[in-house]
Amino acid sequence: MNLAVSADGKTSDVAGLPSGWTSRADHDRLLDLRATAGALLVGRRTLVADCMTLTCPGREIQPLRCVVAGSGEVPEYHPLFERAGGAIHWLVTGEPPSLVLRFPAEVTVHRGTLADFLTTIKTQLGVDHVHCEGGGTLIRMLAEMDAIDELHLTLAGHTLFGGQEAPTPTGSPSDYLPKSLEFRISRFEASPGTGECFMSYRRHAQ
Ligand SMILES: NC(=O)c1ccc[n+]([C@@H]2O[C@H](COP(=O)([O-])OP(=O)(O)OC[C@H]3O[C@@H](n4cnc5c(N)ncnc54)[C@H](OP(=O)(O)O)[C@@H]3O)[C@@H](O)[C@H]2O)c1
In order of start, what are the domains of the chain with their CATH numbers? Predict the structure, then answer.
């Protein structure tokens, strides 16, 4: 997974400010990370807030574009459906399975749990490396499943969001995770010119 966090540990402000508050170098790193993935995974709220197309410039074979939604709500217009890219897979974890979802483009709809979806991505769609770009609610679900192997963070020292309710890398401030997960730092690259620091961590299971 890959996220940008402010100096006070927030991923957005209380109003849900979309992406675009970090440097060009951060965006380039995001694209480099996308290029290594067989599938990109985002929560529906991030897809909408950040107007994501989930594409990878210059890559002949595009990663699958996977969206995790709870409800049956589909945006009427969204650039994801307009821009050519990898096949779109849309998970709905809630809603009655009989509800018919209408999309303005070809989309494969999956119903069930996030765990089932990850299994489908690996076993049926043949993807070993899924790259998640948030948001915090989805990352919390993945952390609760202990499904995160590698974590890339851009610490944006130039921004303080403040606000008790502003989201963190594991979503809205709430209860602790059921257990701590240990990660070890594998990369630390400070960029004083941009006021940012790029870090990577690998899961270290006991
Ligand atoms: N700084 C960064 O790097 C970064 C990265 C990503 C996002 N963000 C910001 O984070 C915000 C969005 O993050 P978010 O945490 O609100 O949402 P999110 O993680 O992007 O989306 C979570 C999605 O999970 C779905 N869902 C499925 N099962 C669920 C369940 N059991 N419980 C709850 N949700 C479930 C919800 O669907 P329904 O909507 O259908 O209920 C929801 O859309 C935006 O402001 C975005 O700009 C920042």
Answer: 2-203 (3.40.430.10)
